[in-house]
Amino acid sequence: SSGATSFLRNVALFAAGTGCAAAFCLEVVTTGNECLVERFGRFHRKIGPGYHLVLRPFEFVSYRVTTREQVMDVPPQQCYTLDNAPIKADAVVFLRIFDPQAARYNVDDLHNAILNLCLTQLREAVGELT
What we know:
Helices cover 37% and strands 38% of the residues. By secondary structure, the protein is of the alpha+beta class. The strands form 3 sheets. Strands 3-2-5 form a 3-stranded antiparallel sheet. A hairpin with a 2-residue loop joins β2 (33-39) and β3. The chain is rod-shaped. The termini are far apart. The mean pLDDT is 91.
């Protein structure tokens, strides 16, 4: 009787420990999002929506990104036309990230890079006007 009770207690403790470890390693990614997983500090894989197992001591989610369309407001800029007339121009940018790996590893600050690119294009477009 004592041996059977001890065995059942050990099985229950093992099941509880396994359940807690699995819950700790479970990563839930919601619809419209993607995550990048790094193993030992290097890119390992991209995970999409759903339930995923991430081995926490060795792996971690390094980047979470939405794949839905985003809106970015470009602040008003003082621009000059071809005949040096001053114009204040502003813009709105709609963006969507298709490649989270490139967004994470190829640019240091993605939103700032997009903003600067848009400002450059805006000034160039206004500079061609007369």
